[in-house]
Amino acid sequence: MTQTFDWSLVQSFLAALDQGSLLGAARVLNSSQPTVGRHIAELESQLGVVLFERTGRGLLPTATALRLAESARAMEAGAHQLARSVSGAEAGVSGTVRITASQPVACMLLPPVLARMRQTLPEVQVELVSSNEVTNLLRREADIALRMVRPDQASLVAKRIGAVTLSVCAHRDYLRRKGTPRQPADLLQHELVGNDRYEDIPRGFAAMGYPVERQHFALRTDDLMAYWQAVRAGLGIGFVADYLLRTDSDVVALLPELPLPELPIWLTVHREIRTSRKIRAVYDFLAKEVPGALASVSAARAAAGRAR
């Protein structure tokens, strides 16, 4: 009859055979004498044989124990070889990990985080894909994705690691030319920077009871970096992530009382890819560091609001 049992039972058997006592076996295994004794008793019960005779001088192996020792040592050698193979394959966290994120996240938020990661994981190389496409992780074009939309595919694992706060803002040159809005309704008298196909900004105005038409927007673009650069150039008032806003002191946050939605950041990875040590290490680092990067922005924003 085929018997199955824990490898730990065989370890205890061999240690007791080599050391000649339960106490000696326990010391070798960094275990306790009662635990080793239970292991041997369980193994004897499962095999239906007696392995040791207990004597005043220790353990005396039976003929059966000596006969089984050869097979047990073969198991031990196989277990050690397996451990060496795993250790050799992943002795250190190294290799290339491909990360995809939206343009602003990839260009502005991630670089300082990745610079710190380089110090922690010096053997990991990063391929950074700046893309607003939400499908490239599904197509296996990246290992890890940072997205503002939670994926609903069962093959992906997503963890919310923070939220991006937004501000109404404009360049100082624009405000010198056009004046500063004092209340949300004043925005209708200003030139705005908006999106082309996306309707988030018009929907936000409509929710406040201020419908806006396309002609209100001095520039419309769905390229998020072009959007930011347009605001920086003084084309009009825009709605920008705070982590972008902090990079240019000449772009001023406006109307702090205006409630703007926060955009969640989801750290996403393929379910089976998380078993890769290098990908798991990068995943864990980003999960820890990105919230801190966002929190520092939120704290700076709050301090600026109190100063005003």
Give me the secondary-structure category: alpha/beta
Q: Which stretches are low in confidence, meaning pLDDT under 50 for 5 or more residues running?
A: 86-91, 298-308
Largest sheet, described in full?
5 strands, mixed
Q: Helix tally?
A: 10
Distance between the termini: 81 Å
Radius of gyration: 32 Å
Approximately what portion of the residues adopt beta-strand conformation? 15-25%
How many strand segments? 12
Mean pLDDT: 83
Quaternary assembly: single chain
SSE sequence, one letter per element: HHHEEHEHEEEEHEHEHEHEEH
The backbone outline, from C-alpha atoms, is rod-shaped
The proportion of residues forming helix, as a percent range, comes to 40-55%
Strand order of the largest sheet: 4-3-5-12-6
Structure overview:
This protein has 308 residues and is an alpha/beta fold. 45% of the residues lie in helices and 21% in strands. The protein contains 10 helices and 12 strands. The chain has helices spanning 7-19, 22-29, 33-47, 63-89, 103-120, 172-178, 200-207, 224-232, 242-245, 277-307; strands spanning 52-55, 58-61, 95-101, 124-130, 144-147, 156-164, 166-171, 192-194, 217-220, 238-241, 251-254, 263-270. The strands form 4 sheets. A 5-stranded mixed beta sheet has the order 4-3-5-12-6, with helices on one face. Strands 10-7-11 form a 3-stranded antiparallel beta sheet. Helix 5 links the parallel strand 3 (95-101) and strand 4. Helix 2 (22-29) crosses helix 3. The chain is rod-shaped. The model is unreliable at 86-91 and 298-308 (pLDDT under 50).
